[in-house]
Amino acid sequence: MRIFFLFTIMAAGILFGTLSAHASSIVPDDENCMMCHKYPGLSRVSDEGYLRQFYVDSDRYAHSVHTKVKCTGCHVDIKEIPHKEAKIVDCSTECHITMGDSAKPFSHSKIVEELKGSIHNVDNEHVNARIAEDFPTCTDCHSNPTYRFITDDVRDVHDARTQDKIFQKCSVCHDQDASYKYYFNHVTHRIKNLSASEDVVKTCSKCHSRDDMAEKHKLKNAASTYLDTFHGKAVEFGMENAPTCIDCHVRDGQSVHKILSHKSPDSATYVENRYKSCEGEGCHANTTREFGLIRMHVVIDKDLYPVEFWVALAFTVLTLGVFFLLQGLMVLELIRIMFPNLSFRRKRNG
Amino acid sequence: MSKQRPAFVRYLYCLAGIAFLVYSTYIVFILVMHIWHHAPHSEAHADSLSKEDRLYQEMLKGVDAQNAGLAYKDIGEIHKLYDFHKNEAKAVTDSKNLCVSCHGDVPHDKKKEIRAFLNMHAYFMACETCHIKSETPGDHRYVWYNKVTGDEKSSIDTGFFLEDTPYKLMPLNRGGEEPRIFDTKAMVKYVGEFKNKVGEMVPAAKSASLKVIHRPMSSLENSVKCNECHNSNINEAYLPLREIGYNDRRMAQIVGNEVAGMIDRYKEFYIPSFLKPSEEK
Lengths: 350, 281
What we know:
The complex is a heterodimer. Chain A contains 15 helices and two strands. Chain A has helices at 2-19, 34-37, 58-62, 71-74, 109-116, 138-141, 163-173, 180-187, 197-208, 211-216, 222-227, 230-236, 245-249, 274-278, 306-338, and strands spanning 43-45, 51-53. Chain B is mainly alpha-helical. Chain B has two domains: 7-39; 51-223, no CATH class.
């Protein structure tokens, strides 16, 4: 019965869409925010010289993961129109939607708490430089994505995302005893891998690829050193499910928001735990503690890693020396074929 | 002849071979040497100033220009810090307007409360519409010009709100020989010469030229205000809404309580001075 109802709505939608192509891009907006925010020109340049566009593409928003949340569900300080400058959204706010498995208001506060326990919190004991504005907030890594689960994609789902991994994702927000397993089994058979490997690397690279950040926080340029490795190259060449930052830095079963310093004994990258991360599903088999000691983020620096420096130098000289010489010989040979009698010696008269 | 042809083909093969060898050497060089430099892979290092932005800064160097603004050029380039809603860049950039060529597509940045609203209007109204106010009603006629191609139309489909329209409203002189009220051929030429020479000009000369360029502008106090168009008395509206293509329903929205009432609420409750041109201290 519901399906018929949906079809009726869809058919009406298509009919309405053809009758009025423009009107189809507007979603119901009982707060009337779109009176102004429907205009792409609603924008200004911030004092730092960045463009801020206050336009909200309602068509896109309707397909985004926050579609059930009204504007004021996040922008809680806006009470009237016209409004003054809105405050930065606090993602731990309880918004007006309720959780699927209870009548409790929904909130991302659990994740905010996890972030507070991670190395990405300025107060974490292992932080090198306590510069608060350099530390990520929710929106530094997350934007408002559209739903990626498209029925046409179902046959493309990679085997690597197992049910356990999906449940692990669910448990980030929902209680373990929650009925998400029920929802999973009944609502969807497959879930598309949520983030492509290159997207994960891109997200971390926003901060971890910046030399100025690395210098301030006494870290290495994690992104560029990662891209030098086989793991990084696999991502760059588009290998599906290639190991990303998360695969090594998040412990099995842990939330990605709770990344810890390698100095913390609970961390996935703690020297005693590291090899366990390598042993993940579809990764390296039978790893040992020593396997985990292989250096990943290597900077070619004579003072920091002298052995790596000299090995790299030797291989560079060897490879280029042999290759250039060989190529040079072949070019000379081709020139000789083109000009068999070419000589720079002066011809003797007589 | 028959002997020359194989020689010619041989030449060709040899040259192709040399080109291939040189190219493969280049590739191997890149592959080997990439470990030696740490490409930052960063978006943050890019110098954000465009060529036009630099020219604009050059124009203002040493000049006392109170209302100059920032001259933001690319309305599609949202900073990633403020891109939570992930709007696909729909905004059409104006490449035809003479004012925009210096002041950019997002020109208003002074009055905090209304700058975004003003920029929203600048998206479909040429600067001249408000900043060169007609002295007597009926002095100006209006055309909609295409921001990309420059084609002009006397009316466009305004049955729905102007979302990502490529058209902008532009006032023209109704009578007289010269239809343009600002970007006359002489002015376009003058501005072009000014831009070319601005690097070598002393501040006083720059000031004088900027004065000449901005002479046709109404003072900010005398520019067209919000409530001159969004006025509940439609006959008093500054813009001839019907003439520029608005139907009754859309006109009612523009002058209706939602917009005009909002402006009144701004005026009465929030920022009594918001229609004044400069920021309240």
